[in-house]
Amino acid sequence: MFRRSEQDKRPQVQIFVDGAAVAARQGDTVSAALLASSYDVRRSTAVSGAPRLPYCMMGVCFDCLVTIDGVGNRQGCLVPVTEGMQVEIQKGKREIGK
Amino acid sequence: MTMAPKREAYDVVVIGAGPAGLAAAATSAEAGLSTLLLDENIGPGGQVFRAVASTPVTDRNQLGADYWVGADLVQTLRASNAEIIQRATVWSLDRNLDIAVSVGGASAFVKAKRVILATGALERPFPIPGWTLPGVMTAGAAQTMLKSSALVPDGRTVIAGQGPLLWLLAAQILRLGGRIDRILDTTERGNYFAALPHAFAFLTSPYFAKGLSMMREVKAKVQVVSGVTELAASGDGQLASVSYVAGGKRETISADLLLLHQGVVPNVNLAMSAGIEHRWDDLQLCWSPVLDASGNSSIAGIAIAGDGAGIGGANAAVVRGRIAARAAVEALAPAAGAKLPSMAALRADLSKAERGRVFLDTLFRPSPQFRIPSGDTIVCRCEEVTAKDVLDAVAIGATGPNQLKAYRRTGMGPCQGRLCGLTVTELMAQARGKTPQEIGYYRLRAPVKPITLAELAAVPKSEDDIKAVVRG
User: Fold this and answer.
1) Are B419 and A47 inside 8 Å of each other by CB?
2) Residue numbers in B near A56 (CB within 8 A)
3) Cα-based angle A36, A39, A40 (whole degrees, multiple of 5)
4) What distance in Å separates residue A79's CA from the closest CA in chain B?
5) Which residues are paired to A4 by β-bridges?
6) Under the phi-then-psi rule, with left for phi > 0, alpha for psi from -120 to 50, and beta for the rest, what region is A88?
7) B382 to A62: CB separation less than 8 angstroms, yes or no
């Protein structure tokens, strides 16, 4: 859906999405890194289980919710990637204890 | 920079580091007031100047001169004594000017003598059939990724809607080598005539020449369909096609990405939760705060600057930020105000920056069918409530948005009405034969952004706090 422009010379940052390594760039938000990866990163909603991807990328729609380093319901569009970050795609409601 | 505020109290706290917030905080700090700027994003700039201090898009022509103005504002601010905290989410503001802010998973409380809200705008909801499908995003979302990560659309891409941002985004995508298959322009034909009386001011504003050259640049490379009167996205769990009607003819095209845009509206959540009075704006079709000429709201000590004060664009936002900060300086340290540009000079700047705005508002006033959906189209994305659900609730007695919460949970999901509030107000107003002003809006309350119970429980408590809630 999206690709990186060649002029982007930022250093790579490796994150893990459901255990798989994904090459992100320093300064990417988690949501941007997910959308730039070739993986299926659709979450499913808590209400009906419908698949969703980020809609606004500016912190207002909450369709980018992900689990980051064990903490659920984070807005992926507001969190910058860090080396070794563990991202889990949320399926349905946030799990208790996460 | 992700650390708690250094002090418990400040002269001025500015919330939001977009055009208005950057200008306000710099003005306030330069006048010697202790100033704290809180911003939710990774870096300063807001949406218009998104990632201006870190963008990987280094060819300055690609994002345009208007974007790089932000770099100077950031530099001026950083050279001042203002304390700046990024990734700081303000979740409460009250009439005593007490502010609760979440930074790095912990909440802190600060008190201000003056608060300047510069929470800006968000894109107007665009509730068409299929707008919740993966692959449908706002134009602003694509622009955010373009500015902050140099990401451009790659698959079959359709841009639909209207307004200056749509053309700017299209030009930027093309300059960065991205793909756009078609642009569907939803500008209502009648709007051109309605806007005509305001054309003179627009023709003599800077918007005109820039807008025209951008539209030419885009039209030379992309097929543009104008007069689009219907729009729908469809696909099974993922966008597959976009269908539209133009000139009475329906067409369906395959698409991987649909970018929607029909203007921006004030981001009212924090201001409304503080209890600031808002009125329905019949021209801009949104809620705008009631403000005096210096941006002061109905709550003493809280001013609003930038697009949160009513949509005026980035240039106007910068000036409104300076005006609000100057008013704060006059109130708190009148002697320091003498060094700043006079209020009269700032107001002249503002009227210059606002030139042509009425024309744009009239020309790009979104059509009713793109604001007020029907049938199975989702209104509330979080709780997955359709237009029909809302109308059914009205039929059995729901009178306004707040009653509707009890019937259907609209606006009670994590976005707290940001993506459905305007639609619900207009839909209910139409169904009940009332004005949006009469129907009203959701009552918004803190926390205006979700925080965990653990974070709330970890907030330091005094003896009195505990006594207030513990029995015996």
Assistant:
1) no
2) 122-123, 137-138, 140-141, 419
3) 110
4) 7
5) B151
6) beta
7) yes
Instruction: Give the alpha-carbon dihedral of B52, B58, B64, B65, to 10 degrees.
Output: 70
- Judge contact between B426 and B433, C-beta under 8 A: no
Per-residue pLDDT of A16-51, as tens digits, reads: 999 999 999 999 999 999 999 989 999 999 999 999
Handedness of CA B353, B354, B355, B361 (dihedral sign): positive
How does B271-298 read in b/e, with b if 16+ C-beta sit within 10 Å? bbbbbbebebbeebbbbbbebeebbbbb
Contacting B residues, span 151-210, partner chain A, CB-CB under 8 Å: 151-155, 176-178
CA B143, CA B180: separation in Å to the nearest integer?
13
| Beta pairing class for A65-68 and A86-89 | antiparallel
Among partner residues B177, B238, B384, which is closest to A47 by beta-carbon distance? B384
**Tokens read off for B451:** 């925080």
Query: Rounded to two decimals, what is the model's pTM?
Result: 0.97
CB contacts, 8 Å: B45 with chain A: none
**pLDDT tens-digit map of B116-156:** 999 999 999 999 999 999 999 999 999 999 999 999 999 99
Single-letter amino acid code for the residue at B259 = L
Cis peptide leading into residue A11 (ω within 30°): no
